[in-house]
Amino acid sequence: MSRVLVLAGGSPHAHAFGPSGRALVALAAERGHGAALVDDPDEAATLVGGGGVDALVVAGLWWRMLGDAYDGWRERHAYSPSPSTRRALGGFVADGGGLLAVHTACICFDDWPEWGDVVGGAWRWGTSSHPPRGPVAARVVTSHPVVEGLAPAIELDDEVYGDLDLRDDVEVLAVARRHPGDAEQPVVWAHRFGAGRVVFDGFGHDARSIRHPQNARLLTQALAWILEGR
């Protein structure tokens, strides 16, 4: 039985990460994996460093919360990973651990540039953006085990992140537009970091999106694929 650790939490000002984390744990458990939920990156780092985890799912928002808009949140929720946490999380994937990065995972750890290397892409402050949550029609653009059997168009209510800072070696699996006339933006990709397999799913804003039939299938197939590398 594979062991999956779901890391969900962080600043709650725009997301309900508790229900999202529980939905991800349930998806993993339904597929026969042993799944546990934590809400602290430092705890997750300790657990993955202990050798008892095969795959890490990150669905949270831990960052420094810079800017006037976050003045009311910064004192309680600002976060910067310690050197030991960076080594443990990055080393886990580099050494062959699987990583499923969901939605806001690409925004996390904004003073740790190497996190973008691990995920395969990152939010670029001042450049990246997303419109309000609404109807999205994503287009599957290649054949890959993560998107096998999905409809050519993935339709759900969510957000489309655009103008992310992608690494050159990611394999884009699905694209979507932020608004009519926008360039198609990569919203799902596969990636390898060291010996580890990584999938980024830009959807999963909340538990309803995670449980959406097409996204739930994508997430469970992504989990299966990253675990094949173990």
Number of domain modules: 1
Tell me the β content. Answer: 15-25%
Strand ordering within the main sheet:
2-1-3-4-11-10-9-6-7
What is the H level of CATH, i.e. the homologous superfamily? Class I glutamine amidotransferase (GATase) domain
Structural class: alpha/beta
Rg over CA atoms, rounded to whole Å, is 16 Å
- Could you say what the CATH topology is called? Rossmann fold
Distance between the termini: 12 Å
* CATH second-level architecture: 3-Layer(aba) Sandwich
Helix content: 25-40%
Q: How many strands, which pairing sense, and closed or not: the largest β-sheet? A: 9 strands, mixed
- Low-confidence sequence ranges: none
The CATH first-level class comes to Alpha Beta
Topology as H/E string? Answer: EHEHEHHEHEEEEEEEHH
- So what's the overall shape? globular
Q: Could you report the average pLDDT, rounded to the nearest whole number?
A: 95
Q: What is the number of beta strands?
A: 11
Structural key phrases:
alpha/beta; Rossmann fold; nine-stranded mixed beta sheet; two-stranded antiparallel ribbon; 11 strands
Describe it for me?
30% of the residues lie in helices and 25% in strands. With 230 residues, it is an alpha/beta fold. It has a single domain, classed as Class I glutamine amidotransferase (GATase) domain (Rossmann fold), CATH 3.40.50.880. A hairpin with a 2-residue loop joins strand 10 and strand 11 (196-201). Helix 2 packs across helix 4 (83-94). The chain is globular. 47% of the residues are buried.
